[in-house]
Fold:
Amino acid sequence: MDATAPATAERDNHSRDNLTRRVTVYFDGPVPDNALVLEYAATNTEAWEFTSAAVYSGLTVTVDSKIRPGLRRLPCHTLWR
Structure:
């Protein structure tokens, strides 16, 4: 680990407390039965920025406040900092 690891870990733990949005991403499959739906937890800002980029790329995304225990963190959340 480098010298920034503790600061980054602390920031990530703090932002984890602010995970107030569920981001659901829908991927079409070759047939409707093969569609893939993934759900993630995110902060309000992360959800907004991710959704803007995803919709621009042609994905279907919904955002709501239905956070539940065990929901995975939005991948690459540090890209929005």
Q: What stands out?
A: Residues 5-80 form one domain. The CA atoms of residues 12 and 29 lie 33 Å apart. The two ends are 20 Å apart (CA to CA).
